[in-house]
TrEMBL record:
Transmembrane regions listed in the UniProt entry: 30-52, 59-77
Database matches in InterPro entries: MrpA_C/MbhD
Protein name listed in UniProt: DUF4040 domain-containing protein
Tagged with keyword Membrane: yes
Every MrpA C-terminal/MbhD domain range: 15-77
GO terms under cellular component: plasma membrane
Keywords: Cell membrane, Membrane, Transmembrane, Transmembrane helix
Subcellular location: Cell membrane
Keyword ATP-binding: no
Membrane topology designation: Multi-pass membrane protein
Organism name: Candidatus Thiothrix singaporensis
Amino acid sequence: MSMVLLAIAVLLAVAMLGAAWITIRARRVATAMLAAGLVSLFASVMFLFWRLDVAMTEAAIGSGLTTFLFFFVLGRVRGGSDD
């Protein structure tokens, strides 16, 4: 592995840890959900260097669909609709 890829991987790992820390320490639920989506997005970028198929799946399901579902459910719970 080249030094550039190693440096980018370390930078992404530190960014993931920072976003995970924000997820844990956030006072608002929406902030925590966005930071959790950011962790997944950083993971998909990290996978881009080694496994493209895993990166595309992680980006689509992990950071995209999961974050959307979190906000959808949060809206339904806060809205109080009884379906």
